[in-house]
Amino acid sequence: MCKIKTVLKYLLLALELGFLEGSRFRCDYMSTNVGWFKYHEVPLNFHDAYLQCKYEGAMLASPSTAEIKSVMMELMCYASAFSFSISILTGIHSTFAKGQFHSIDGIPLAQIYHEWAPFEPDNKNNAESCIASNYKGKLSDVSCDEPRPFICHKKHINIDPNDCGTTDPDYRYDKRTNKCYKLHNKPKRFAPAFFTCSAEGGHLAIINSEEELKVIHELHALYPPNKIAGHYDKNSAFLGFYYEEDVADWTTIHGETLEEAGFAKFQEGQPSNSTTGEYCGAVYRDSFFNDVSCHKRFAFICEKSPHYPEICDSENLERQANYTRICKHNFEDKGKSSPGKTNNPVY
Ligand SMILES: *[C@@H]1O[C@H](CO)[C@@H](O)[C@H](O)[C@H]1NC(C)=O
Ligand SMILES: *[C@@H]1O[C@H](CO)[C@@H](O)[C@H](O)[C@H]1NC(C)=O
Ligand SMILES: [Ca+2]
Ligand SMILES: [Ca+2]
């Protein structure tokens, strides 16, 4: 039996102490007295894991205190049938300067109580600037490029989620479409733009009607070119469609043709497929669609449902419990290194 009880104990303790009063966050996170946590089972490298957590409104978790470490070990236990063979990526890294390990929020490794796995750290090939943890909480230095599962952690909630179900104030609700929109005016290429919207809980915007185009134009107008820093084409912004070569047609990122999606008008003279090819979809700030290079940076527009991800109250234990899985391993049997047991001052 994994220690479901331990997590419940945390939750109950937190309630008793009133730590979580009024705390609301994404339901895909689990609430504890040391913040909200989410286990990501799809492995990513350090850079992408860092971004994924950041865009979710959280931070790549580091076992920086006994309590946090304990929750992380519990989550590993729930999350994977293979938890004794996997290791997760932590937020402890030295990517800024070799050997200078610290958590994402700046706590030096020297100030974090830690134990190393056998023969670690070894800085293999002088290329190990990230730290992974096994299910016992033992650390190894590893390559930051190797994808691993990871945990995101939201420490403090000082802002309540808005109408758009996010603490990001740049998402604006529009009642005409019952959707939320955000224009990112720090330009990115198509793939990172897709990643960003997705991790924020939305997707690159898809225009389903003339009215929605109007909504997008109004949003774009809030960011006039002379108010945006940087040198790039500020008249177009990426949307969620692209040219699918195999079907020789423009397709939304949700697999429909533009006609099926409900709006398909390109600006006159577009699609132009200029220079080296333009296979990604964009919209002019005051006109219709444009085809642009997927590899050039543009502003981009994300769209999200105000109801996804769902927002949960930290008090709603039953609901929270549904987001964890049953652990298949008997960690108790494995002896004194049972995670969270030895060094947990909370109870
Ligand atoms: C777009 O332009 C590229 C580069 O000039 C060319 O190779 C490609 O065939 C064009 N694609 C279409 C669909 O016209
Ligand atoms: C939790 O899951 C169980 C079983 O799937 C379901 O019956 C129950 O209603 C769920 N609870 C909440 C609060 O969603
Ligand atoms: Ca190593
Ligand atoms: Ca074009």
UniProtKB/TrEMBL annotation:
It comes from the Eukaryota. Pfam families: Lectin_C. Keywords: Disulfide bond, Signal. PROSITE patterns: C_TYPE_LECTIN_1, C_TYPE_LECTIN_2. SMART domains: CLECT. The keyword Methyltransferase does not apply. Residues 37-153, 176-303 form the C-type lectin domain. Residues 1-22 form the signal peptide. InterPro entries: C-type_lectin-like, C-type_lectin-like/link_sf, C-type_lectin_CS, Ca-Dep_Lectins_ImmuneDev, CTDL_fold. This is C-type lectin domain-containing protein. It comes from Arctia plantaginis (Wood tiger moth). The lineage of its organism: Eukaryota, Metazoa, Ecdysozoa, Arthropoda, Hexapoda.
